[in-house]
Amino acid sequence: MHITCCAHLKMVVDLGGSFCPLLHREDVKMPVRTLPSSFLMLLAIWGVLVPSLSHPQPNPCRMIQRMALCNNGRLSYVPVGPPCNTEELQLNHNHIQTLLNSSLLHYSSLHTLSLAGNYLEKMEANAFGGLHPLQILNLAENELHVGYQDTSHALLQLPQLRVLDLSQNGLEDDMVFHLLQNLTSLQYLNLSRNLMQRLDESSFEGLHHLRELDLHSNMLFEIDGAFSGNPKLQRLNLAFNYLPCLVEFHMTQLVVLNASHNFIEWFVAEQGLKETFHLETLDLTDNKLLFFPFLPSRSRLRNLYLSQNTVRFYGGLVDDATGENLTTSIQFYNLNGNASNVTAQLWDDSLHGDVSSVEILDLRNNQVEHLPQGFISQMQSLTRLQMQTNCLKTLNLTSEGFSGSLYELDVSNNRLSEVMAEKGTLAALGNLTYLNMSLNSLRRLPSGLFSSVESLRSVDLSYNSMGICPSETRGKDEGSPSDCVVWRNMASLRQLYLRGCGIQGMPPSLFAGMRLTHLDLSDNPGLRVETGALRALTGTLQHMGLGKTDMKSVDFSPFHSLRYLNISRNSLTQLPMSLLNLDLRMLDASENNLSTISPGDAALLAPKLRTVFLAGNPFNCCQMEWYRMFETTFTVNMVDKTEILCQDEAKITYRAGVLTILCGDSSRESVFWYLLLVLSGFLLFVGIPTVCLLTFRPLLLQKTVKKKSLKPTSY
Ligand SMILES: *[C@@H]1O[C@H](CO)[C@@H](O)[C@H](O)[C@H]1NC(C)=O
Ligand SMILES: *[C@@H]1O[C@H](CO)[C@@H](O)[C@H](O)[C@H]1NC(C)=O
Ligand SMILES: *[C@@H]1O[C@H](CO)[C@@H](O)[C@H](O)[C@H]1NC(C)=O
Ligand SMILES: *[C@@H]1O[C@H](CO)[C@@H](O)[C@H](O)[C@H]1NC(C)=O
Ligand SMILES: *[C@@H]1O[C@H](CO)[C@@H](O)[C@H](O)[C@H]1NC(C)=O
Ligand SMILES: *[C@@H]1O[C@H](CO)[C@@H](O)[C@H](O)[C@H]1NC(C)=O
Ligand SMILES: *[C@@H]1O[C@H](CO)[C@@H](O)[C@H](O)[C@H]1NC(C)=O
Ligand SMILES: *[C@@H]1O[C@H](CO)[C@@H](O)[C@H](O)[C@H]1NC(C)=O
Ligand SMILES: *[C@@H]1O[C@H](CO)[C@@H](O)[C@H](O)[C@H]1NC(C)=O
Q1: pTM for the predicted model, two decimal places
Q2: Using CA atoms, how far apart are residues 525 and 548, in angstroms rounded to an integer?
């Protein structure tokens, strides 16, 4: 049977008038007429409030050109409302359990059908009869594991299907095998969130045109010879499975391989291949790698994500163990017990494959103690090196030979005590913009490190022991080790973080010639911040961190651009007056000694502030006008509101938001009004239903009254 669109045109036109029928109004009114008029009024209000709840629309589709949107409609069938020349039909999140042979007869021009989230269990074998143009089919989030056999027959009728989403359908290996039989035209296949365990030659055979395959969040523990029939496969997602290794990797056509969040100990590409691998992105985040992956010997790899593994380099180890016989061949067994030997020169750090095109190397959270010689200098296009949380002890910028393209260098949270650089090296780092060396034990840095690098915008040196050089220090030779930094004349620098550096004093002409927008000096107790020392920054500074610095009387008034200020943990007994005229967006004044904020100050701050932190202060419960002012200003977010406490005259602690009745007369009066409000609210709440009950159930009431009065009394 072949249905043409014209045969149905008339029917569609006929339906047009009753597209969104409003037929219920009469039905409802008729029985209502006999009810008391007050009930009618309530019903009318109810009708205004929840029209959609009371009358579900039978045809919920909305047309946008040739696309019919019928999502979230609780439909249990495919509607016929949309015209039959509709090209895209979206029926996501309805209740269609079976796609019948007749369901789609009406739509012969469909090229996209979306049935995600429908409890769909099966499709009858002829459900797509006559739907040859269908190219895109989304069946995600259904129950196709129930009727996969019928469904697989139905899919056979789609010779042009390019895109198929079968994610989250409870599918096991053999079900997938059935469903994919002869879908030779598929280019994109999504099988994520199913129950697949093993892949082999037969899994995707015949899918010659497949380009993208998503298998994330299955239970895969073995891949044995799969993908040999998919010469065009470019993107493969294997994330969140149970794979223990990826060896003999030889998919030269692949561009993106995501094998993150598995249990991979070994990644070994086939070393003998002369061909260049097309691999550009390899994601092995969150695995169990012990070794840097054994990459293809020729590749275009640009993005290498290896964070959250236990990678380290073993070069030093072998030197120590000369004479030992170190294995260079590893045996891997598959489920059938077939062994394959993979030979890799485990201990030779220079043989980890071709990294010459790598731009992003993410090695965060590993155990790297040193970088092999020549390792970094091979990466002539390296822009981002992320080595946060490793075990690096030293870093010699000269011998590593970073490329001029380096943009971000993050070596924070390592064990660095010294960073070295020879004269002339630093100027070569002309593109370095973000430098993070926080959380190390740095005692020495090459002098001129920050002033010689031309594009440096952000430096984080927090939690090291690097002091600030006294102002009389003359600039030393570039590169020579220095135990303090001269913070002057770094024209490009905008963000400087010097938290917890044990800084004690601030020399007078500090920051001269600099245009910082962010400065964080928090966690330097005893810093004794003086306005004069920061004078150079008054015009530019937008973010200032002075938490836990023992600051007392800084004059903030010259800092016109300041928007974010952190003065927490400073034992302040009142907010600095000079804050009030600034255009502050964020203020952190938590953990000080504030007992109140005067109503005048609060009135000045409230309209400007967006975010404020004030917990950890010993506020006085009887002087909390500021709290109510901030609370009623909707633009202010008191982030730690529930933790703001206050004490009354008897030193009893309350939450600031909770009512207190122990202050002076005026507040007692306000409590009276508050109670009155609560009482009237209560009356409203209880009263209205009672009145309604009395109005609409007069008979019932009479009965109850009668019953009560008929009860025999005990005397
Ligand atoms: C798939 O196609 C092959 C060859 O075209 C055919 O022999 C086989 O029967 C088809 N499989 C199914 C399940 O239709
Ligand atoms: C596959 O489907 C999952 C779940 O529906 C979705 O999160 C994922 O983005 C899809 N994959 C691709 C490549 O679109
Ligand atoms: C790999 O997959 C995970 C999980 O789906 C995702 O979070 C991550 O962004 C992917 N990696 C890449 C490089 O796309
Ligand atoms: C290394 O292997 C050779 C040959 O198998 C053996 O003779 C030698 O004793 C081994 N050396 C050590 C230190 O185990
Ligand atoms: C793998 O290597 C072991 C030890 O070198 C050897 O005994 C075994 O025969 C090799 N197996 C294969 C399949 O080559
Ligand atoms: C840093 O590396 C360079 C080049 O390899 C070398 O000449 C220099 O001695 C090294 N510096 C230190 C302090 O080891
Ligand atoms: C420096 O970085 C910018 C931005 O990332 C980039 O466009 C430029 O090519 C880089 N310069 C060099 C020499 O790599
Ligand atoms: C520097 O690294 C530390 C720790 O890894 C991190 O907390 C901090 O936010 C980073 N600094 C900047 C400016 O990104
Ligand atoms: C303010 O500084 C303190 C102390 O250094 C810190 O704990 C807090 O997180 C900072 N507040 C904000 C909002 O960043």
Answers
A1: 0.81
A2: 6
The position carrying tokens 């074998």 is 125
> Cα dist. 103→107, 639, 645 in Å?
9, 53, 64
For 107-135, what is each residue's pLDDT tens digit? Answer: 888 999 999 999 999 999 989 887 778 99
Tell whether ligand 8 has an atom less than 6 A from the beta carbon of residue 591. no
Tell which wins on pLDDT, 372 or 307: 307
How many other CB atoms sit within 10 Å of the CB of residue 690? 10
One DSSP character per residue, 97-137 reads: -EE-TTTTTT-SS--EEE--SS---EE-TTTTTT-TT--EE
| Minimum CA distance residue for ligand 4 atom 8 | 325
Strand ordering across the sheet containing 645-647: 619-620, 645-647, 653-655
Indicate the domain borders of the chain.
5-54, 679-709
Over residues 625-634, the pLDDT tens digits come to 899 899 888 8
Residue 156 Cβ < 6 Å to ligand 1: yes
**Alpha-carbon span 214 to 235, nearest angstrom:** 8
Pure H helices in 109-231? 148-155, 173-180
Residues 313 and 350 sit within 8 Å (Cβ to Cβ): no
CB 455 less than 6 A from any atom of ligand 7: no
Q: Which of 148-152, 340-344, 517-521 has the lowest mean pLDDT?
A: 340-344
Name which residue sits closest to atom 6 of ligand 4, judged by CA: 325
Terminal Cα distance for the chain, rounded: 88
| Whether the CB of 459 sits within 6 Å of ligand 8 | no
